[in-house]
Amino acid sequence: MPLVNPIDISDQSVKELVKFFNETLGFCPNSVLTMQRRPSIAKAFIELNMAVMENHGQLTSEFKRLIAFVSSNTAGCRYCQAHTIRAAERYGSTSERLEHVWDFKNQDFFTDAEKAALQFSQEASMVPVNVAKETEQQLHLYWSDDDIVEIMGVIALFGYLNRWNDVMATSLEENAINSGNDLLNGIAWNPGKHI
After folding, report:
1. What is the model's pTM?
2. How many domains, the chain?
3. Of 20, 60, 112, 142, which one's alpha carbon is 20 to 30 angstroms from that of 134?
4. Number of C-beta neighbours around residue 144 at 10 A
5. Which phi and psi angles does 49 have, rounded to 5°?
6. Per-residue confidence at 62, pLDDT binned at 50, 70, 90?
7. Which helix (H) or strand (E) holds 16?
């Protein structure tokens, strides 16, 4: 049962902003509908989300969602795992990448640059943070400082979402549950408290 139930969006400016999620997920997430109880929080979150997910360098929309998945998987947030894998699929990720992202280190579906970013995502999402010097060196080998800022933006955004949704026990939407069941069977995914 959620700690706080989502509500319909009443603020017109938030209604306009949530259109962003129609492309990303195909629906407005319940996390945003819970934040909507304080429209200024919902607005700030959506604007941050939009800014973080803009692509200015080498990163793609698909890969940013895979970074978010690895971050959420490391944090253990089932809600965000389902959302990020769904969004990665909607942005054109292959079935091989989707099915094996949790085991990226051992997969040929990921480039060395992607593996470096995903390793960084995993280590930066641990509590406490445990980013190895070798991981930092690998990251700098393949990514510009500007790209690293985008990578870290995704990790930080999902750090907020992982905490929000795990504590709030935000209920998963039916489409997100279906995506989790279809795409995350390799990690024994289940909605857990997010039903």
Report:
1. 0.97
2. 1
3. 60
4. 11
5. -55, -45
6. very high
7. helix 12-17
